[in-house]
Amino acid sequence: MSDADLAAPAKPAAIDARGSRILQGTGWARQLALPIALVLLLAGFGLADDRVLTTYNLLNIAQQTSYLALFAMAQMVVILTRGFDLSLGPTVSMVSVAAALAMAGIGGADANGIVAVLAAIAAGFALAAACGLFNGVVVSILGVSPLVATLGSMNIAIGVATTISDGRPVQGVPAAFADLFYRGSILGLPIAIVIAILVGGVLAFVLSRTVFGRSLYIIGTNPQAAAVAGIPVKRLLVYAYVLCSALAALGALMMTARTGSGEPNLGGTLSLQSIAAAVVGGTSLAGGRGGVGSAALGALFITILSNGMNLTRIDGYVQMIVLGAIVILGVVLDRLRLDGR
Amino acid sequence: MSTTATLPGGPGRQSGQDILNLVLTVGLLPVLMAIVIIGTSLMSPYFLGWMNVVNILRMASFLAIIACGQAMVIIAGGFDLSVGAVVALASVVTAKAMAAAASAIGGPDILAIVIGIAAGLGSGLAVGLFNGLCVARLKVSGFVVTLGTMSATAGIGLLLTNGIPVYGMPKGFVQAIGRSQILGFPLAIYIALAVVLAMAFVQRRTLFGRYVYAIGGNQEAAVVSGVSIRRHLVGTYVLSGGLAATVGILLTALVGSGQASLGGDAMMLQSIAAAVIGGVSLRGGIGRVEVVAVAALFLTILGNALNLLHIDSRLQPIFLGLIMVLAVALDEFSRRRMSRV
Prior knowledge:
heterodimer, A: mainly alpha, ABC transporter involved in vitamin B12 uptake, BtuC, two-stranded antiparallel ribbon, 15 helices, globular, B: mainly alpha, 2 strands
């Protein structure tokens, strides 16, 4: 679960030595800080309100976490390479609207909605891939900073989402779509949790056991060294941004199934929330450090915090202040961890 | 540039090269601005009308003041995402303090006005100081810290007002600062001119300005040369917070009430866009506030032109996004060419 574990398991001896040094330097107390904080937070809210620790609410937290975890993982992939994706939220809106429009367009033409669902998936992923491709090409080939590139594509995606939907929710999502991405369950677990766990598992494997994943860590740690070592930095950066957008698209389809309509405002604050979740979990904005575990933990932390504050009826405006404070605290802790090495 | 002369190519290619060279030497900004102004004035009779010109200049002044502060922070190698929220906070604090002082003191309006302005400016400076201390003392990334303070500041602004506009300011404030005109132009334009001139002087002729360039250009070299990094980094954030608060106060005077909805994310993004289009390098160390002010004027003209030409407001973000990416990509491209020659 820890970042050090994910940064360590490369085969070459040199990197292995570096990994073990990280493990010694960081120590267990720092690694366990966030999980312990999670348990304390949950216990504290449980004492404050007895609805917090019910099976129903815990399942609810898990389900909400799975959406944010997907977005945090998406963000984490590009943060590993010293980038970030401000267009993630608008991409979610755009995919949601496009998928709903595709389904509404096909409408009642097919009886059980399979064609409509496939069309929605195709439309959503195609748009997201185009957005990711744009980000990746602008960042890696044109050499524009990720902030400006994704700020640009953020504006473009907002424009596309509101234009094709006329700024209104898009109705006409068939039941088959909601069954596939929201209502279904496997072994009693809601489908959203299953999808998040599956995607997280595959992504963890890709990041820690494939050449592509290891290369992302090296690019983030030292881009010059990565280029000298013969890693096709530009191509892999494009892949990273496309992967980020694709994961965001998956989350967008799941959220569209949950709301039952294509929402042009669905993404809202997700860009910032996903960055916050990744950073609080321990992904370093300096690149090269982080993993699926850290993204998921960060997402869980933020979800529990907002769920608990909602149930204990803490003012929404105060929640904004608390979220801001948590983000700052997260990076300060990250800085202390780095200094601890 | 000697390599371009020896390049073989047909006449069409040559003229393409000429245009590219023109854009690279003059800069994209004047070329684009001329195109927008000429094109719009041909298509809309209202564009060059007196009311519209004054309106454009007023709106550009607000953006230019904020963008100057943003530019200083970016030149020093940082980022200030909290400026939009500071505008809102300063507006609310100014209105609350002024209304309270007016009803408590009762005496001449001028005292209440001064107290209100001081409180508003103070709130902005305080947020800037917090940002600066986090960045300089704790060495945390400016992006994340200001992401956190953005959320927290917006939360405080909403909490203070519950989202309801604050009234009760002395009439003199609105008349003297918001609606007064000198030689036919609103006061805000003169304040913006003064700010830009002062900042241009600071950048060129003061130690603070030169040190900001030095810190952004090469932090290690600046440290070795004996520059106090921390103090000047804090200074840039305080400056940015103070300028954002100034805009908050001016906007409050214009609309006649304190509102937590002023500024916001749109203003923050536009200030970054103005800085970046105005040639400020996100890597730090490069940029001139007067060019940034021209970029702010350009962005305001562009938005106004798109409105007058009846272009769907939902499509407008797409233009902004594309122009921003284009400007930075071109900047990067010309820098690479220069370093190659």
